[in-house]
Amino acid sequence: MDEVSRSLQTEIKTTEGKTKDKSINYFSGAALVDTLMSSKWAEENDELYVETRLDAAEFCTGLLAKEYFIALHEKTKKGSDSSSEKKKKKKLLKFDVINDPEEFHDDPNKYYMWKYSLMGKWAWVIGGVVLLGVIAMALVPVWPHEAQAVFRYLTTGSGLFLGFLVGLLIVRGIVFILVWGGSKGVYHFWILPNINDDRLGIIETFKPLYSLSNYYEEKEKKERRRKRREARELGQISGSDVPSATEDKKNI
What we know:
single chain; alpha+beta; 5-stranded antiparallel beta sheet; two-stranded antiparallel sheet
């Protein structure tokens, strides 16, 4: 069963969704049966006998009972239009976890998620590099003197750089609090506002050097953008009727 489960988890196509506390990758019951029927396990062999979809569904029921994967229930908002396919494509589906499912369903509208994720190749590579690094650190006393000197310079430089970053975060926090408190919450001032944004490159992280924004003006802009986006999704207004960003700036 373990080998079949790993094979299915590798082959089946999943879709990104959300539960209450995390992002997940889910699949339908019909997709799991399709994947099993088209795999090598559907052929005649001594380990598993799968000839029909009913056989595949029974095997999947066993996997569910042993918690190889978990059953999900799709959340639906009250008063929402279930026929709005356009809205469904834009937003991730949200689910509740069913703790004690009664049975597995070979159904495209019944959803499941794997309980554990497989370790990828990069996980093994990174784990091996970390292990070799730990062994190398333990053998520092027997390194040549030149290598030990280089190691000391690197560790000292890394420590100084780390100390600089920690000090910078403390200073920017203090400055923010002083400006925010002095303006009674109106102005937000940040030194290196993008320093914590891990989506940016190293150079972009240090740009701009500072930012100063009016909290209430920014809040009003976000509210206008949210209303325009909701209006577009509901089809109440056309794109030409929506005021542009430049018009917003002129009205401020």
